[in-house]
């Protein structure tokens, strides 16, 4: 299928590449289908692009690249809603806020996106029992617990 995207223009995506967020993403509850698109010549960042709304594309990254000590536990309801994925089928992403001065860009570690690659289901989980915040600088040392 052809879709219009925020950063890649019009592209063709395969239906098997579509990720389904059954309850949308907080703030975008009506948006239930996304694709993960690579950024050319950049292995760290991707775009989580809405299939329906061309101007809705989130810059995302693997948070473990920037925060080696990043750790959290998923609640049982989230594990269930994702179809009880095995650890090898899980991909974790963080939404970035990209700043004009790129070294001031931040990652949302409080609300990771969890993907079950086996069934293509996704969910943004809001961590409530953690010291992670919505804005952690990505180009500094670990965003470990405050203390």
UniProtKB/TrEMBL annotation:
Gene3D superfamilies: BH3618-like (2.30.290.10). GO terms for biological process: bacterial-type flagellum assembly; regulation of translation. The keyword Cytoplasm applies. It is found in: Cytoplasm. Pfam families: FliW. Keywords: Bacterial flagellum biogenesis, Cell projection, Chaperone, Cilium, Cytoplasm, Flagellum, Translation regulation. Signal peptide: none annotated. One of its GO terms (cellular component) is cytoplasm. HAMAP family: FliW. Belongs to the FliW family. Interacts with translational regulator CsrA and flagellin(s). Acts as an anti-CsrA protein, binds CsrA and prevents it from repressing translation of its target genes, one of which is flagellin. Binds to flagellin and participates in the assembly of the flagellum. This is Flagellar assembly factor FliW. It comes from Rossellomorea aquimaris. The lineage of its organism: Bacteria, Bacillati, Bacillota, Bacilli, Bacillales.
């Amino acid at each position: 299928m052809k879709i219009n995207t925020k950063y890649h223009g019009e592209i063709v995506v395969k239906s098997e590449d579509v990720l389904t967020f059954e309850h949308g993403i907080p703030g975008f509850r009506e948006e239930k289908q996304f694709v993960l698109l690579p950024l050319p010549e950049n292995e760290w960042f991707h775009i989580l692009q809405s299939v329906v709304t061309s101007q809705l594309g989130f810059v995302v990254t693997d948070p473990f690249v920037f925060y080696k000590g990043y750790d959290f536990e998923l609640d049982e309801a989230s594990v269930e809603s994702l179809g009880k994925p095995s650890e090898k089928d899980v991909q974790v992403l963080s939404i970035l806020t990209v700043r004009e001065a790129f070294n001031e860009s931040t990652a949302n570690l409080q609300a990771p996106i969890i993907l079950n690659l086996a069934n293509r289901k996704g969910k943004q989980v809001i961590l409530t029992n953690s010291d992670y915040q919505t804005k952690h600088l990505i180009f500094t040392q670990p965003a470990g617990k405050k203390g």
